[in-house]
Design brief:
Pfam families: Peripla_BP_6 (PF13458). Keywords: Amino-acid transport, Signal, Transport. InterPro entries: BCAA_transport, Leu-bd, Peripla_BP_I. Helix 3 packs parallel to helix 4, helix 5 runs parallel beside helix 6 and helix 8 crosses helix 9. The protein is an alpha/beta fold and 403 residues long. It starts with a helix and ends in a 13-residue tail after the last helix. The chain has 2 domains: 195 residues, Rossmann fold; 154 residues, Rossmann fold (3-Layer(aba) Sandwich). It contains 14 helices and 15 strands.
Length: 403
């Protein structure tokens, strides 16, 4: 009798395991959630949707005829809007993973919602370091940048080139505050000084008063702790004030190739910026960029680092689905965390137990107009920060110790 009970229990356990390791609804749905109409529409927007579609096409069923659908929505840079979309995707529409999500407030809200659900959060554009800190979730993988990496590596690279005194122009929400705090900690910890900071609202059009304060501070480096249209407007107006011609260095913490294209290389020349991806880095990145530029609606545009991150994280997720036979985060995310190797777009890459994807970061300088030989030939490489130095060390225990 005891033997029969043990046999029945084992059979039930095996059946339970088989039932849990399955693809819900016989299709894997990936939802691209981003800003389609606002300040991040060029760096993310429909370009991210095309990048996710490219990943699904390259996955090609994973050798198991796995069906993949890509859906998308605009979170309008509002946490409540993003949360409502994610909840509908989770509860009603059978979406299995959410990817992209620029805007840290929206990303942190999604991160909290999906914790302990069956959905995976591929936070390829959410830059808050809290995703691998106090808000760490076993359902989340964070690709491309974060505030710690952006703040520390950019500050370190600039200080190594003599930039000791800083002034910040910072967007007044989680992203900007996080970048400034991380950079200031590094600067002051390595003998530098922060001479001041000006906070501005998201979507600011007039930076004149902020730039005059930065110029008047005589700081060697003016750090732009913002992104998208805000950074573009600040750089354009800094050129009008002749800030770089006056000897001050302008450095952008979160700027992408699309932003440089939008403001024009003449305006952006000499600007320093930190990137995780550049389309013209090697044969693999160029091949991806050429395909991306030919996609519907792209009209020859080169991909941003965020769009490359959508492709890489979506493909990594789908490969993990194929490996486990499941689209449940409890199966897929641990499988993703086994990866350590060469990513075609981001180079030497590993996915840590806290969900942070580590890869090299690069300090670039925008070329002078006469140095640019072809469309989107905008960057020259100044220094490379190896993966092990580019990101905050993982807390002991990864996400396990974070409640």
């Amino acid at each position: 009798m005891r033997h029969l009970k043990w046999t029945l229990a084992l059979a039930a356990s095996l059946l339970s395991g088989a039932a849990s390791a399955e693809i819900s609804g016989n299709v894997v749905r990936v939802g691209v959630l981003n800003d389609i109409s606002g300040i991040f529409q060029d760096t993310n927007g429909m370009g991210s949707v095309e990048a996710a579609r490219m990943a699904a096409e390259d996955f090609n069923g994973g050798g198991k005829n796995i069906k993949v659908e890509i859906v998308y929505a605009d979170h309008q840079n509002k946490a409540d809007v993003g949360n409502a979309i994610a909840r509908k995707w989770l509860d009603v529409e059978g979406v299995d993973a959410i990817v992209d999500v620029p805007n840290s407030a929206v990303g942190l809200s999604i991160n909290a919602l999906l914790r302990d659900s069956r959905m995976t959060f591929l936070a390829s554009s959410t830059a808050s370091s809290d995703l691998t800190g106090k808000a760490c979730s076993p359902n989340t993988i964070q690709w491309v940048n974060d505030a710690w990496a952006t703040g520390n590596t950019t500050a370190a690279a600039m200080m190594s080139r003599g930039g000791k005194d800083w002034y910040f122009l910072t967007v007044d929400y989680a992203l900007g505050k996080g970048i400034e705090a991380e950079a200031q900690k590094y600067i002051e910890g390595h003998g530098g000084k922060v001479l001041g900071s000006s906070k501005h609202p998201l979507g600011t059009s007039d930076f004149a008063s902020f730039l005059l304060q930065a110029q008047g501070s005589k700081a060697q480096v003016i750090g732009l702790a913002n992104a998208g249209g805000d950074t573009i407007n600040a750089v354009k107006q800094a050129a009008e004030f002749g800030i770089q011609q006056g000897g001050q260095k302008l450095v952008a913490f979160l700027l992408f190739i699309n932003d440089i294209h939008g403001m024009g290389i003449k305006v952006a020349q000499g600007l320093q910026l930190m990137e995780a991806f550049y389309w013209d880095m090697n044969d693999d990145t160029r091949a991806f960029a050429k395909r991306f530029a030919a996609r519907p609606g792209m009209n020859g545009k080169m991909p941003s680092g965020n769009q490359a991150g959508v492709y890489a994280s979506t493909l990594a997720y789908l490969n993990a689905v194929a490996a486990t036979g499941s689209d449940n985060a409890k199966d897929v995310v641990p499988e993703m965390k086994k990866f350590k190797g060469k990513d075609k777009l981001f180079g030497d890459t590993a996915i840590r137990q806290d969900g942070r994807v580590v890869h090299p970061m690069y300090l670039f300088e925008v070329k002078k107009p006469e140095e640019s030989k072809y469309p989107y030939d905008y960057y020259k490489l100044i220094s490379t920060i190896p993966a092990e130095q580019a990101f905050r060390p993982m807390a002991e225990g990864g996400c396990e110790l974070v409640k």
